[in-house]
Amino acid sequence: MNSYQLRIVTPERPFFEGPCTFLIVRTEDGEIGVLHGHTPLVSPLVPTVVDLRLENDSEGRRYLAVSGGFLEVRPDKVTLLARTAEWAGEIDQERAEAARLRAEEHLLDTAADRERARFAKRRAEARLQAARAEQGPAARLAHDRSAG
Amino acid sequence: MAENLKAIRRRIKSVESTRKMTQAMKLVSAAKLRRAQERASLARPYAEALKDVLEELAKGASGLGHPLLTERPVKRRGYIVLTSDRGLCGPYNSGVLRLVEGQRQAGAVVMVAVGKKGRDIFRRRQDEILAEFAPIGDNPDYLLAEAIGQAASTAFLSGAVDQVDLVWSASVSSVLSRPKTERLLPVVPPAAETALSHVAPLFEPSEERVLAGLLPAYVNGVIYSALVDAKAAEHAARMVAMDNATRNAGDLIRSLVLVRNRARQAAITGEIAEIVGGAAALV
To answer: Of A146, B92, B94, B154, most Cβ neighbours within 10 A?
Structure first.
């Protein structure tokens, strides 16, 4: 399968660089998959799980969570400008779950900053989703079904 | 004479311990400088990638409109001033503050104080402080940049200020820094380098929406770059200042030792004279 050079950068440090065959992210418009030869594109991301297929990785799939940013596709390379990025394996599920519950509480609270709470909730969900995806397709399917 | 000798000895000891401290501070700053430089270089790829995207957008689309891009007559200027939390760093803060001082004549100014030193000065001068971020510590993170960017953008959009400049001590080389001003708001889209010959990208969902997301990120990115650059400059300035202080202490000790030896010799000579005098009287 044809691959392309993928770069994931965050404001504080470059996060990842390497050949990639396929990736899925969620943009403001919805999920998008990028294969080799994708048309040049720039699109803002919502907090999302990123599903990567790396070229030379025996495990095949890698997952990470990003909390917003941009996807930039160029003819020669693809860049993810992520506000923050975490490999799924580094995510503390309990903390993410706690953050999600806290954000939901804030959403019910009329005095709180709704916009921020909604963002926090989406970010926590992306992190949970990434962590579950890493644990296996079974957990992922179960979660997707329960999320409806 | 004996009193004088004692005083000199005490003085030498005190200067010696000062030298130990400045020496230690110099070493600490050198280590922190290395780390700060590393952080600054790690921040570069993101800043450059973001700038590329904005260039692309500015080139592809004509007549982009966004509140953060809109110029208006400047009645009140805002300054985001990056200073250190602590002193003993030579001309690091004074240079930045002098630069801001120079702008004061041009019209009303409002400050966003970042770092304790600047904040304290602006408070003392009773400047209008829009927001303050202090202390900022040794490793300012991106969250801090976001908070500063948020404060600046809000002030600009609400009309509280018509222009926002960023002022900091920019590293010129690893030991030299120079105060620098850069316009932050309204955003000046980076000028695209001569036509990269490739297909203009699609902007999804729309150029406006991409721009609306990109501009705040760009502003925050510029602030973050300045923050890490200023930190590197601060540690460099402190390292140089402490190096000078250590050297001065060494010079001072050397001249004090000379004085001490002379005084000691004089005391000994005096004692011998007394003994000889006493012996002569007995004979």
So the answer is: B92
